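User: Fold this; tokens only.

Assistant: Input:
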Amino acid sequence: MVYPADNQPSAARIELGRRLFFDPTLSRDGSVSCASCHHPDKAFADVRAVSPGVEGRLGTRNVPSVINVGYQPYFLREGGVPTLEMQALVPIQEPHEFDMNILEVAERLSAHEVYRDLSLRAYQREPDPYVITRALAAFQRTLVSSGSRYDRLVQSNDPTHLSAAELRGKQIFFSADAGCADCHSGPLFTSFAFANNGLTPRSTDPGRKRLTGVASDGGLFKIPSLRNVAVTAPYMHDGSVANLQAVVAGYVRGGFDHPNKDPRIRPLRLSAAQQEDLVAFLSALTDREFEHR
């Protein structure tokens, strides 16, 4: 993990960020915090298709997990934010999330002695936008998960960490025929590239095109990590797919036609039993130790 020169981790910075993450003071009406959508017991994701912000206003996209977020090279589903520190500004100012101005947040926090003291210890300055964004990023970089049963198999080369069905699913996942690992690659099970997976014939959400304005980016979204995927339903950028069985079935079908659908998305010859094995393997990517921290 790469840490910015001006935001090296310390106990005081992490503690300040942790308090901010769980504090609804950051929202206009004091009704929601970061943790209202990023639930610790749900791998820091949400069980709802889209989550409500202030006054119950619904968002437009499914909440992604922030576990291992410190390893990501850019943020938001279209990749338009380059640093974790800058990302903190998005939910604060978004009308359907916190609906606040960062300067107003700083004023609120400056009225609390605990926040003033923590801020001075952490960054040698009183609460201000610099402190708020950096503290939140410092805390989120501690949300590291690498203790799944799949990880134990890799570390020990002992196949008994997985069941027979999970081992069969692993073989399917990494096979050239299924091609899952073409997009969900590496230790984090994502290439961080952008793709359209044929979720719908026509995207109502412009995806990466919202950032670039390029027609060929329409309906493209950042490929998500599959770590802890079994506990982060529902799925896709809009939360429209209820469970992993439906996700796998969509890929087996080859997705819907879309002008920008990735050519790697094509019908797969997987039996019902093989699809269940693949789902079983995806469940083995869950870090149960992390769930109980």
